[in-house]
Amino acid sequence: MKTLLVVYHSMTGGTEQMARALAAGAASEGDVRTRLLHASEARAEDVVDADGYVFATPENLAAVSGLMKDFFDRCYYPALDRINGRPYAALICAGSDGQNAARQIERIATGWRLRRVADSLIVCTHAQTAEEILALKTISGVDLERCKELGAALATGLVLGVF
User: Fold this and answer.
1) CATH, range 2-160
2) Is the torsion defined by CA of 132, 134, 140, 142 positive or negative?
3) Would you state the pLDDT for residue 41?
4) Which of 35, 49, 104, 132 is most buried, judged by most C-beta within 10 A?
């Protein structure tokens, strides 16, 4: 059985909703074990033991969140050269455009020699004031469905050996 590891961080709930929707989509395909881990709990062994990855983060100050960066910092070297060629995708819950957070994940994944199998799925909440940024988020059904579809596609690709 293949394992899809979904590592996420969420401060206001938006990214967690996206990650959970993706995990539900992956689980619906069967024959894939989906592990949903908060970035603070994920370890290098979790990365090495998985067959594919989704990295889900809010955009904080035009970057990945600090806890996602901490996850990458802790796991990068212990997993280096042990996960080459494995597939990954990224989810970003952004207040602006999310592009820099996506680029950061892409650069880290390139160093890990991972293979991007989907464009970053960015959901923009347009939160721009301090109150909007700190408020709990509700991701639209349409965007959650996009996350589910990506999860299903990743799971299918793992099962079929496409990735």
Assistant:
1) 3.40.50.360
2) positive
3) 98
4) 104
